[in-house]
Amino acid sequence: MATNEAAAPAAAPAASGDRPALTTEYLVGNWAEENCAEPDVRLAADGSTDGGRWSLRGNQLVRTTSEGEDPPLDIEVVDADHFRVSFAGLPPQTMQRCS
User: Fold this and answer.
1) Euclidean distance between CA atoms 28 and 47, whole angstroms
2) Element holding 61 (H helix, E strand)
3) What backbone phi and psi angles, to 5 degrees, belong to 55?
4) Dist. CA 43–CA 7, nearest whole Å
């Protein structure tokens, strides 16, 4: 017997194993490519960052400054303290969370 119920929309993929989901909460903090003594970027919970504002759109980090929107960065979560960032076809760089 057929029903008239619409199919539920597909849920976002769940994080697996030790890899958390990519959320704004995950990205909040100080991040560095190599040396946490001098973090490369600070992403604040209020959406501010060095010289502008940041937001998450899907798997892309977008930074906006007084000059406009920077090209988006593709983000891939590695684990709770590391993510890979890639831009315009360049090789990805791994960022680490700094305390």
Assistant:
1) 9
2) strand 60-65
3) -150, 160
4) 38
Contacts of 84 (CB under 8 A, 6+ apart): 75, 76, 78, 92, 93, 94, 95
Q: List CB contacts of 15: < 8 A, sequence separation 6 or more.
A: 21, 77
pTM score, whole prediction: 0.78
C-alpha–C-alpha distance, residues 67 and 63, integer Å = 11
Give the amino acid at 5: E
pLDDT at 8 over 90: no
**CA separation, residue 94 to residues 9, 33, 61 (Å):** 33, 6, 14
pLDDT at 13 exceeding the cut of 80: no
